[in-house]
Protein 1
Amino acid sequence: MEIKYVIDTHIQADHVSGGRNLSKVTGAQYCLHSSAKVDFDFSSVTDGQELDLGNVTVKVLHTPGHTPESICLLVTDKTRGPEPWFLLTGDTLFVGAVGRPDLPGEMHESAGQLYDSLKEKLLTLPEALEIYPAHFSGSVCGAGMSGKPMSTLAFEKRWNPSLNLDRTAFIEKTTSTIPPKPVEVESIVRINQGRG
């Protein structure tokens, strides 16, 4: 099987990404959202863009909030049917929680963007969609995450406490329940931006 794309859903703050190294080893395109602020070349992806992988298509959804360049990846396996099968949510939506909005800086503005991304992009998708977040319980990338590694959109709509709040309450909740920042966050971000 040929690896065509290596995609980071955002610039990581809790670990050094191996994406660029994997791209070099495999010859695959290393992809980030077009708004990513990094000091190296990458293949730019944009909202609504579809990546063709034969029987599989991956649609890019720009979902700012956790970080400005955050994306989710909507996957359709055409051998199963025309409807999307699952969503890789990165750090935008977790099982039982949502991503933290404080790492890029302007916490309240980022929380509002996260709310908009969830309501306008993700919660409008088919409810049977499976979701696979980048982290689960134990990660410092969100508060209140479940230990389950996956869920469905319908389950999250019903049981994820953040998804049933209005915008004001969502911003208040997500900005007041933030875990401590990851250790060495600034140096990790600099490395992942190609600056360290």
Protein 2
Amino acid sequence: MCSRLHLLRLFTPVLFAGTALFCAPPIGSQDTEKAVAKAVRALEARYKGAGSFRAVFLERRSEGRGSLQLESGTLYIRRPGLMRWEYEAPEKKLFVVDGKFAWFYVPADRTATKAALRQSDDERIPLLLLAGKTTLGRVCRRIELADVHVEAQGDVALRCLPARGGEEEYKEAVFEVDAESHLVRLLVREAGDVETEFHFGRWEENPPLDRALFEFAPPKGTVIVDERTLMGNQDAN
């Protein structure tokens, strides 16, 4: 029998309507591949049908026992390959994918981190499939139904095992899709019991989003940290 996730009690009605969770319905083995293929096609078709999207999100990150961080904000997507995450609470932060680089900016620290997309292992990168930059088949070496709690009856959860191996890669990603093929949850599990979970709501299709929204211009005095330089320093040590 399913139980509620205590985490969802922290969600506000403004972000997400309802907190009831349901177990995913059992599917016979003979129907599993068809169910997976149908869900993947529907998810990709949903986000191919519009040129831009906007949604609210709540992010939960845990690193082992006793460590929990909750953040919320607004996500903007423009095809092909552009994303902007505006974090609003508990502090303002910005994550921008401009098509070539991923930028992470913390105004309070006056620091911005820059990484080439092909080098970044940021947990938000799998969502580039919504921006038309890739497909689940390219991101995942294997896709299967995930036996996890889902947020609403009729939702489908897909487990993605990453296409490339290595210690830097996430162990798995779980995409939860609702009855209208909107992505409502992304759970990324990494090594060391690290989990990052994104919940999405209030999806809007084709909002007017200017290209400049996805360009990061560091404010004067911002320190730019290039991940390639950091990796080079680590190798040297």
Protein 3
Amino acid sequence: MTTNTTIPTLQGEGSIPAYVAKPAGTPRGAIIVIQEIFGVNPGIVKKADAWAAKGYLAVAPDVFWRQKPGVELDSDIPEQFQEGVGYMMKHDFDLGIQDIEAVIHWIRRDANVAKVGLVGFCMGGKIAYMAATRTDVDASVGYYGVGIDQMLNESHAIAKALLLHVPTADGFVSPQAQKAMHDGLDGNPHVTLHDYEGLDHGFAAEHGVRRNDEAAKLADTRTEEFFAQHVG
């Protein structure tokens, strides 16, 4: 298990395991890193460490802790991929966003970092959208979020900046779903969508066959500039 910290839930009925990476000096802000369906695995740890190297406090909570703490899966192994799908299907997203809110509160209160951004991948991309509609996080970024088109009725609640990376050949997000996202969000002054032509789901994964290095670097640069503007 790669987590090294626990964060109390809002109601105090449990503790959320998390991997925390600290910058060398005073944090310029904090970035919450939300996993794919594969847990806080080496790819997510690498992303958190990269944010810490850029001067942010990075926190990667174990989203599946209520089901099974310490899930770490490899997306390139079909059996483990399917195992991750199973966890996602059973995940309570409404309860999970309360856990994200608890992490935001912990960062501001206990870690004493006022500005908080959140970046999520795959399932975490949906959570990034939900964080923008249901929490007071300062900025959110979603990579290839699945199911956002089913939650556009919440878009009126977006009060802070939201950036979404959308690969146009995403096998989990249909062209119709992508069109609905654009139709529902392009007119929102808080929201920016970037399309990545011909790319599939998972193109910014740190490890494995899904990664497209050129596109990942472009998306990550846009994300870094976005957080520099809105978080610090």
Protein 4
Amino acid sequence: MHSHSHLDVLDRINTAIEEAKLVFAKYSSGVIAAEYKAAHDPVTKADKELDAVLRKTLLREGEGWLSEERTDDLSRLGYERVWIVDPLDGTREFIAGIPEFCFSIAYVEGGKPIAGGICNPATNEVFVGSLQTGVTYNGRAVHASQRQELSGALVLASRSETSRGEWEQFQKAPFKVQAVGSVAYKLARVAAGLADATFTLSPKHEWDIAGGAALVLSAGGHIQLLDGSELICNCRQPIVSGLIACGPLLKDELTKLLASHVAITRAQA
């Protein structure tokens, strides 16, 4: 991607975040009504209105679109460049009044997430970046953690996975576990070096992870699927089995630690 178009993409991401903030300001966390989709996932009026403003601000001719809140007609598969968006990742936390939710935006080219933006409007945190420019956190340049070993590391866990007991197997692990809502927000915090790693043990859609993955990679961090393969976005079935994100020096130790879980998962599949 040429640098001028890269800057145009980042400019669109920044503008979209500001527009989304204006929309979000009309809503109050913890006191909003929710409907429930087929898979018992909540959706609010805020989700739908945020989707509309993000699409209007980001999308240009010759680009595809994949969003949690819009029917996927697969037309995106005909485009090299695609926006993958979750207008409000962490809707359950938003409904509950827990300030762990965000707008998540990814720009994907040839299946690779190359630029992204994530904003937590409750805490007024903004993470934006690209492979060419690196990442900023509230306007300040940041990098992924350079920690060299898991001992003492801060690992962010899925709030829902921990409530289901899926993280009990890591009670004796050498790292500190902190449960946080919204996988996109967790990935953004890893990108900014505010945490050393995160991983998800349950399947995720591309819109959950693409924006955060773009930021982690742009901040010099490491991203891979739970089975060790590379993350490829804009797939026909936009879902992955699980994701690992960490500072670059932790990938070998973390992958080794999780290998037994992957083996168990495969055996059960």
